[in-house]
Amino acid sequence: MQEGMDKLELQLKEEVGNVQDLDELNNIRIRYLGKKGEITLLIRNMSKLSAEERPVFGKKLNELKASAETMLKLRKKELSSKLSTKRWEKERVDVTLPGKPFNLGRRHPITLVLQEIEDIFIYMGFIIAEGPEVELDYYNFEALNMPRHHPARDMQDSFYINSKMLLRTHTSPMEVRVMEAQAPELPVRIISPGKVYRRDDDVTHSPMFHQIEGLAVDKGITFADLKGTLLFFIKEMFGKDRDIRLRPSYFPFVEPGAEVDISCISCDGKGCRVCGGTGWLEILGAGMSHPRVLEVSGYDPEKVTGFAFGMGVERIAMLKYGIDDIRLFYTNDLRLLRNY
Ligand code: PHE
């Protein structure tokens, strides 16, 4: 029996020494110390021994059991720390490696130009008023002096949602919305930027584009105020050397109406390919608010006058950056976008 116990101890020592993972170590524990483990069975079989043998082997068996437990415990500690070191080595970060490049985004050229235009008008005391892109026929046309079947509607054929609603064809509906929402004694100085939609699609026209509307209403506002405001804007935007020219034009919601040209950026007014030899570039529509528009918006045309203007942001961006195809703004080609 003594011999068997010594052999068992040696065998256990060897197995514990060779084992490399914790699950396997636990299996060894079960095989020796579990309910049907070899050491457990020896202890259980002690009842078969004689009265003299029992205390002697009992003591030895207890010692064996204790030594087995110690061996297993020590090995468990050893393995755990070895494994956690291994895991740490695998997962650790090498802080000396070069970092991953982080691409910074930037503003789209249309946004840049939009913000530049806004800044100039904010400097002059205008505030920003934004409105809905899905607009009522009433605000887009009706209140702007373009009743149903008015021929001026043809130029702005749009996308109708139903018979009363459409995607706005210009930002002018905001003139009416702003005046309507405000007490008629109060003066107005607003610009209204945003997207507009028209059934147009070529190198210089896109079915969706951006406009900025301007409106100033007050006692004694004149055409000279309109011209002065636009001249200041153009010089801020395109440089002190630019001049403007106003040509009579027709928009149903202004009277008189004008189309505003700037002296050609490319040839300084001498005439070139960019301006088609005229020396001038058309840049926006403007005029004095039509009395009927003031009236439907709750303002008394006998007491106040106003001027309004509307410009295409893409058009201005194209002139400013020398881009000749409007579609380049919407195709998200980084080779273009990275330049601004
Ligand atoms: N809304 C006009 C257009 O889109 C521009 C405009 C605005 C003209 C204000 C006059 C006054 O063509």
Provide a descriptive summary of the structure in words:
By secondary structure, the chain is of the alpha+beta class. It has helices at residues 2-18, 22-33, 38-44, 53-91, 109-123, 137-140, 173-181, 223-238, 291-296, 313-321, 334-337, and strands at 127-128, 134-136, 160-162, 165-167, 188-197, 208-218, 244-249, 254-263, 280-289, 305-312. A 7-stranded mixed β-sheet has the order 1-5-6-10-9-8-7, with helices on both faces. The longest helix has 39 residues, at 53-91. The chain binds phenylalanine. Residues 170, 172, 251, 254, 257, 285-287, 308-310 line the site of phenylalanine.
Attribute tags:
single chain, 340 residues, alpha+beta, BirA Bifunctional Protein, domain 2, 7-stranded mixed sheet, 11 helices, 41% helix, binds phenylalanine
SSE pattern: HHHHHEEHEEHEEHEEEHEHH
Number of helical segments with 4 or more residues: 11
Calculate the mean pLDDT score and round it: 93
Number of DSSP E strands:
10
Strand order of the largest sheet: 1-5-6-10-9-8-7
CATH fold call of the largest domain: BirA Bifunctional Protein, domain 2
Query: What name goes with the CATH superfamily of the largest domain?
Result: Bira Bifunctional Protein, Domain 2
Oligomer: single chain
Shape: rod-shaped
Could you name the CATH class of the largest domain? Answer: Alpha Beta
Fraction in beta strands: 15-25%
Query: Percentage of helical residues?
Result: 40-55%
CATH architecture group name of the largest domain: 2-Layer Sandwich
* Unreliable stretches: none
Biggest sheet layout: 7 strands, mixed
The molecules bound to the chains, other than polymers, are: phenylalanine
Report, as a whole number of angstroms, the end-to-end distance.
Answer: 92 Å
Q: How many structural domains does the protein architecture include?
A: 2
The secondary-structure class comes to: alpha+beta
